[in-house]
Amino acid sequence: MRIDVFTLFPEWFEWFSSQRHVRNALERGSELRRFHYRETTPLTGGQVDDAPYGGGAGMVLRVDVVDAALRAAYEPGGESPRVILLAPSGRRLDDALATELAAESHLALLCGRYEGVDERVREHLADDAISIGPYVLSGGELAAMVVADTVIRKLPGALGHADSAIEESFSDALEGAPEYPHYTRPATYRDWSVPDVLLSGDHERVRRWRSEESRRRGA
Ligand SMILES: C[S@@+](CC[C@H](N)C(=O)[O-])C[C@H]1O[C@@H](n2cnc3c(N)ncnc32)[C@H](O)[C@@H]1O
Asked: Whose CA is nearest to atom 20 of ligand 1?
């Protein structure tokens, strides 16, 4: 899996790249590359944005700037990633979409800033627009990290325990429901006790209890 992030703040991804599960994925051959819009902008003085046609507050990331960044990264006729624009109005990210993205070999994540991105990016350059939720962030960087994180944890070897990403909240293994509760030692803390079933050693009862709890949480 190769994930390319196009951004005005590539340094934000240094911290992300240094996290254990991301490092695991990178050590196993995945790649996380960063592209700075300003380094390939065709405009002078590093300009990347402009005032919106029709007036209004804020600046808009220009389509020619995004196009130039993509053209500089990918040769015509060469590799072509699935290009995703991060946008509050995009398709809502969920586990099914994360699984779909994890099956791709190459993603390009376009981070917006300011008032947003010229709509022609979505119309002509991006394959998808994805939202991480119904709220507005200051830029696409955190959204790109959320997308990359949920995708990377689905890659083989990213997590310490391979099963962790199989049976977790919203997965097919739990029929789309949230995960069941977890407990660990001590068995009693103050007067808060772990459910008896988890201490019973009866794997079938534990399995049934977890499945019921998961369904109850999802109801
Ligand atoms: C300040 S926001 C623009 C908000 C835009 N004016 C609106 O009202 O929808 C700047 C950039 O942050 C990113 N962004 C903000 N919220 C997001 C979300 N919920 N999901 C994905 N990307 C988001 C997008 O890339 C967006 O272009």
From this structure: 131
CB atoms within 10 A of CB 198: 17
Measured CA to CA in angstroms, residue 206 lies from 174, 192, 212, 213, 214 at distances of 15, 19, 10, 10, 12
Binding-site residues, ligand 1, Cβ < 6 A: 86-89, 111-113, 115-117, 131-133, 135-140, 143
Beta strands in 94-183 (DSSP E): 106-110, 128-131
In 3D space, the residue among 96, 88, 91 whose CA is nearest the CA of residue 169 turns out to be 96
pTM of the model: 0.95
CA distance 206 to 83: 43
Q: Pick the residue whose CA is nearest to atom 6 on ligand 1.
A: 115
What is the C-alpha R_g of the chain? Answer: 21
Per-residue pLDDT of the chain (219 residues; tens, 9 = 90+): 999 999 999 999 999 999 999 999 999 999 999 999 999 999 999 999 999 999 999 999 999 999 999 999 999 888 899 999 999 999 999 999 999 999 999 999 999 999 999 999 999 999 999 999 999 999 999 999 999 999 999 998 777 776 777 788 999 999 999 999 999 999 999 999 999 999 999 999 999 999 999 999 998
Contact 105, 1 (CB under 8 A): yes
For residue 134, which atom of ligand 1 is closest to its CA? 19
- DSSP-derived secondary structure letter, 123: I
